[in-house]
Write the structure tokens for this entry.
Amino acid sequence: MTAETSSGNTSLLYRLFFDKELRSVTIQVITMALIIAFFFFIVSNAITNLETIGKGYSFDFLWDASNYDINQTLIEYDSRSPHWKAAVVGILNTLLVAVAGIILSTIVGFLLGVLRLSSNWLINRTVYVYIEYVRNVPVLLHILLVHGIIVNNLPVPKNAMMAFDGTLFLTNRGFYTPKPLFEPAMWAVLIAFVIGIAFTIWFKGYAKKIQDATGKIYPVLWISLGAILLFPIIVFFLAGMPLSWDYPLLQGFNFKGGLVLRPEFVALWIALSLYTAAFIAEIVRAGIQAISHGQTEAAFALGIKPSRTMQLIIIPQALRVIIPPLSSQYLNITKNSSLAIAIGYMDIVATIGGISLNQTGREMECMTIVLGIYLAFSLMISAFMNWYNKRMKLVER
Amino acid sequence: MSTELSHVVGEHPDLPPPVTEVGVIGWIRHNLFSSTSNIVITVLTLYLLYVIVPPMLNWLFLDAVFSADSRDDCRAIAEAAGDELGACWAFIGKRFEIFVYGFYPAEERWRVNISFVLMIAALIPVLFDNVPNRKQGLWFSLAAPVIICWLLIGGMGLTPVPTDKFGGFMLTLTIGVTGIVGSLPIGIALALGRQSHMPALRMVCVAFIEFIRGVPLITLLFVASTMLNYFLPPGTTFDLLLRVLIMVTLFSSAYIAEVIRGGLQAIPKGQIEAADSMGLKYWQSMRLIILPQALKISIPGIVNTFIGLYKDTTLVIIIGLFDPLGMGRASLADTKWQGLSTEIYVFVAIFFFVSCFSMARYSLYLEKKLHTGH
């Protein structure tokens, strides 16, 4: 009896480590225990350390006045505004440069990717050299280089470089352009624009229905362009051009008025876009090359025009290959925008994670906010891209 | 008459191809001027190159000053020669040692040199499989990091050098190589964990990978430089460089894990089942069957991640370490050389281009070598 019990016990112990099923339970329990112990260790350390220096963990400081100015703000903000408002300004600045960068890098990247595939040897090689240069040099270096060129090599506002007949002034203090001033009647134009978009969406579905039923093809592109662009423009003129421009004027040592793009923003935007564009170009090239040439030949054999072949056969298939890596490039541009701090662009890391952190000494809380915001951005972009990817995915058996 | 009779009727010898179809002319015609749009593109590109390349070459070489004592000196020399103001490379030449060694004590710099030679020697057996005595070489590669670490930090007979003296290209290599060496095994472990059948293990790996990939490296470096002390037992201090090394390694291991996961998912399930039916245990089947195949297809992604990590070492200037970029910016404080930032950036850019481009080339070589398909 006793021998049997003991052998049962040893076998349980034995099985905990050598039986395949039970062993996995053992490993998991040990892993979880270690991780919980680790977190317990660091949290208790943090509590002790914070108590020793008399700091708690609270976000109350967010409602105190920030006492610092931010040179580029999309919402109203001054040094008496609370810290949370500084954080919002930072988030908006991050979003601004990320969105602008995504747009520019996509355009440049697709252009470079197509040129890289050109049968023209010269452009092909030139683009290759350019892409390899950009890809193999750190993005921080690009940002500093562009910033350095703007600040050191562009003229002072007094001898500003003029481009496009006085509508763009390039100076080392920033780029100045006239700022549009909207009058109330501008609402009509905006409404016309929205109506144009709504009409286009409806018309696309309608045209498809007609095409499925009768085979008749409407020029959807031209009609939607007319609805989205021409219609608001007509309304704009009918409303008596309710738009005036605030021109930048040279007063003293700098320009006054107008719309200013600060050198930090321009440097960050251009450097990030060009850097990411080089990666996007390679993605686009790989995507187009992944489509077998037989697809083009088959389309031609069916008598489809080259432009329609590209639009209906090649691009939809290439996009399937392009989108997943493209989405991670969009994530990268958002995360790389945090390098703004190197040139003093006031993004989220520079406001709440930089000046606010230094002024209040609340490292824990500030870094929690910054990390949380970036995680939220990343999750949102990847969720959107997953959704889009699913929509574009090949429906297989 | 005579030309007509030079051949037998019906057996006309082949004429040479038209001049416009072969040789240089043919090549130019086919590659540059084959259609109207091609002609337009060629002309535009030529114009663009004409606008960009000559001024660049002028600035880089022709108008550049290679030896001078200050920026004004550079300017004077350029003016005396009647050139426009080009690059002032004299600055780089004068500060070259600082760019390479940082603040490492001058009398101890031989240790950095030996470490560099050791690193190259340790890399050769790892990178190329046709070197003689590769097996012994690999044992050396395993031992080299310890020796290099001892050489750089000192102690045990050598004068200790605090890590805040590290700087310049030496710092870039230290961070880059440590990150690369450390992140591959951790990345493999994370990738296997993410594919594991054990939910708890999988959850931990997914949480870690997604967290790291969701935030920028710079915020993690800030965490390392400002917050890490709070999480350690009271009274402990932790070397800043070590913290950075750990953060950089963890950061890139999350990316490596995702790349390898892609490789693992591309291996057909039949491979695992075959390994199981042969009676191989988990680790055996992973080591002998799955990982060799998965790693092979992940090579481009792995090398890209390494290149990314290597480029990301520049970010350490933001938390106050002095890589070549930081060194250059710091030496700009010298009034003699003010305003020469472009020279520094171009110099550092060339360094990074050479190292990253050779890594990319090596990955192509490896892909070709391991390619076992048709």
Notes: Chain B has a mean pLDDT of 87.
